């Protein structure tokens, strides 16, 4: 059998094997190189599977040769492929950036453990994406979560420990809720295979156990995705973790939680039940709208730029939930499109902050007067990411908001369309605050700054230019999102 036939399994196994190798070699540069090679393998594997999906609707890989539903199946369709591209590309670029950033922020003795934990997070997130088994979603979720708690705790001050503990408590509650929901579904159907569950659930969909399972799973995933008002762990986790961790989590972790929510709502329960028979569509739209407004407003008043972007992420998750709640082809297409585009946006912004932290040893606005003049390349990349976050034409953020506003207007929900535009104005305010401090205030003559290494600039600018490229060429992002929606809810292309 050709190697390509095993790519669905290898894309999980390679980062899992890389984690202990990082520890065994016990050398910072060796651990970084192993991690980078692993992430790049995952990226090229995802591209290889994209070519394979041109001929089939989904790739199925039975573990151990045991066919589903009796055996454990790895299954990759267009939606899963979209997430794999986000995860593997983000990991590759961020790890390229990580070499000097990690050396600057993490004690040398801890660096091999840092990269090992990062590989476990990547393996867990990819495992969640490719598994066709509901229980293994929980297993991979715990692998990624436990490693994430360790990564956050490696931040430079003691507040990182508190942030990690808060995330541990909230994450444990979320995982417990998810496990309870999966347990209810198994008791009522006798299967854990997602494809098999989707066929058996309609027979028992009116039972209290299945409705309770729906509630437990959605609340658990809401915690993991930082859905308003279950978002309290996110600002501290992003603000106090190492720069590489902030960038990786912002680009990937919440996206995977939203992916699982979409998978449960559309693949498992079905759009007619989850967003039709149940009033969950209205609840999603309400929570999404409040999240957009609250996250944007709070971001305006932050002084720590990481916290500005963290609260902005809560607003961006609100956009996605708002789009899902429309329960329409344009709405869900907008949601998937923003999953892709927001990963590029926040990856760019947090890597730019990582470079600022490396050079200026701070990310607080009050301590960064004139830093745009001292770091013109870094700040230029930040401006590109900021313009994309606002939704300026020619950037990925504009494409997302165009599709979302169009979907809202098609549904005659013009007040929500105005809310999206108002939130964009608020984004202009909080991104404008950073630009004003960077360019229009004098650089203190006594302020010391280090030169940012080329590898950090290279990783940062790959993502920054991607914001522009995918703002004009939408064939991949819109094409995959549209095809995934067609497969999920059965609309004709």
Characterise this structure.
With 493 residues, this protein is mainly α. 77% of the residues lie in helices and 2% in strands. The protein is built from 20 helices and 2 strands. It has helices spanning 7-25, 28-52, 78-105, 111-130, 134-153, 159-189, 194-204, 208-224, 234-240, 243-268, 271-277, 280-300, 305-325, 329-360, 371-374, 376-390, 396-410, 414-440, 454-472, 475-489; strands spanning 59-62, 73-76. It has a two-stranded antiparallel sheet with strand order 1-2.
Helices and strands: which structural class?
mainly alpha
> Residue share in helices?
over 70%
Strand order of the largest sheet: 1-2
Any idea what the radius of gyration is?
21 Å
- SSE string: HHEEHHHHHHHHHHHHHHHHHH
Q: Using DSSP, what is the number of strands? A: 2
Biggest β-sheet, characterized?
2 strands, antiparallel
Strand content: under 5%
How would the global form be characterised? globular
Distance between the termini: 34 Å
Return residue spans where pLDDT drops below 50 for at least 5 consecutive residues: none
Instruction: Determine the number of helices (DSSP H or I, runs of at least 4 residues).
Output: 20
Q: What is the average per-residue confidence, as pLDDT, rounded to a whole number?
A: 88
Give the helix/strand layout.
Elements: H1 7-25, H2 28-52, E1 59-62, E2 73-76, H3 78-105, H4 111-130, H5 134-153, H6 159-189, H7 194-204, H8 208-224, H9 234-240, H10 243-268, H11 271-277, H12 280-300, H13 305-325, H14 329-360, H15 371-374, H16 376-390, H17 396-410, H18 414-440, H19 454-472, H20 475-489
Antiparallel strand pairs: 1-2
């Amino acid at each position: 059998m050709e190697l390509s036939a095993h790519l669905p399994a290898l894309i999980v196994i390679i980062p899992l094997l890389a984690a202990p190798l990082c520890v065994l070699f016990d050398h910072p540069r060796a651990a970084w190189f192993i991690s980078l090679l692993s992430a790049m393998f995952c990226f090229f594997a995802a591209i290889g599977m994209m070519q394979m999906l041109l001929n089939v609707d989904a790739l199925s890989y039975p573990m151990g040769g045991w066919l589903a539903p009796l055996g454990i199946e790895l299954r990759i369709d267009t939606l899963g492929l979209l997430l794999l591209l986000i995860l593997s590309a983000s990991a590759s670029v961020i790890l390229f950036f990580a070499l000097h950033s990690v050396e600057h922020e993490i004690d040398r003795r801890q660096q091999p453990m840092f990269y090992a934990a990062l590989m476990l997070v990547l393996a867990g997130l990819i495992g969640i994406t490719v598994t066709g088994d509901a229980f293994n979603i929980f297993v991979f979720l715990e692998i990624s979560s436990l490693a994430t708690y360790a990564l956050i705790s490696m931040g430079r001050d003691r507040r990182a420990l508190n942030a990690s503990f808060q995330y541990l408590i909230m994450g444990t509650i979320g995982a417990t809720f998810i496990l309870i929901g999966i347990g209810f579904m198994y008791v009522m159907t006798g299967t854990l295979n997602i494809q098999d569950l989707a066929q058996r659930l309609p027979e028992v969909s009116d039972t209290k156990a299945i409705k309770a399972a729906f509630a437990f799973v959605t609340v658990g995933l809401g915690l993991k995705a930082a859905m308003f008002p279950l978002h309290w762990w996110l600002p501290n986790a992003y603000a106090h973790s190492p720069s590489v961790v902030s960038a990786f989590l912002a680009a990937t972790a919440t996206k995977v939680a939203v992916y699982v929510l979409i998978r449960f709502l559309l693949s498992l329960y079905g759009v007619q039940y989850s967003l039709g028979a149940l009033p969950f569509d209205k609840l999603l739209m309400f929570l999404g709208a409040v999240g957009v407004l609250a996250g944007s407003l709070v971001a305006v008043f932050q002084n720590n730029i990481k916290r500005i972007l963290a609260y902005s992420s809560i607003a961006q998750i609100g956009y996605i939930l708002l789009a899902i709640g429309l329960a329409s082809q344009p709405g869900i297409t907008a949601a998937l499109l923003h999953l892709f585009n927001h990963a590029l946006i926040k990856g760019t912004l947090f890597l730019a902050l990582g470079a600022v932290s490396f050079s200026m040893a701070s990310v607080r606005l009050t301590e960064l007067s004139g830093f745009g003049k001292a770091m013109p390349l870094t700040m230029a990349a930040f401006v590109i990411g900021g313009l994309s976050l606002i939704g300026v034409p020619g950037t990925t953020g504009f494409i997302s908001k165009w599709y979302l506003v169009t979907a809202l207007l098609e549904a005659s929900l013009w007040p929500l369309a105005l809310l999206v535009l108002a939130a964009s104005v608020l984004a202009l305010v909080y991104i404008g605050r950073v630009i004003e401090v960077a360019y229009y205030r004098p650089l203190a003559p006594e302020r010391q700054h280090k030169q940012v290494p080329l590898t950090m600039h290279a990783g940062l600018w790959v993502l920054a230019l991607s914001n522009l490229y995918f703002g004009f060429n939408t064939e991949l992002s819109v094409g995959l999102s549209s095809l995934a929606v067609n497969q999920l809810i059965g609309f004709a292309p």
